[in-house]
Design goal:
By secondary structure, the protein is an all-alpha fold. The protein is 66% helix and 0% strand.
């Protein structure tokens, strides 16, 4: 909560927060860029598709793949339905694989 005022601080002050601990630094980064967790997850999703050459499937044996599948088919699909994603976020998702626009 106290970090919500980071936008009022100068770069040196923000850097001092980031130097405290890796978890504090991560929180500071997310306060400064609220989309950072989403962008990181998109990066994981994109890497999976690039490495495997396919969209993730719900596979109980592969927890990471199942998690990415759930993120796309539940979280992102729901966010689109509820108009919670920006046009840019939707474009970023669709840029990963042409099939995504059909799924969402």
């Amino acid at each position: 909560r106290q970090l919500s005022h980071l936008h009022r601080l100068n770069k040196d002050q923000v850097s001092s927060f980031q130097g405290l601990h890796v978890l504090v630094a991560e929180h500071v980064d997310c306060v400064l860029d609220p989309l950072l967790p989403w962008k990181r997850r998109l990066g994981e999703f994109r890497a999976f598709v690039n490495i495997n050459g396919c969209m993730p499937k719900y596979d109980v044996a592969d927890k990471h793949q199942a998690s990415l599948y759930s993120w796309l088919m539940n979280t992102q699909k729901g966010a689109i339905a509820n108009q919670k994603l920006s046009h840019q976020q939707i474009q970023d998702l669709e840029a990963v694989d042409p099939q995504i626009s059909k799924l969402l």
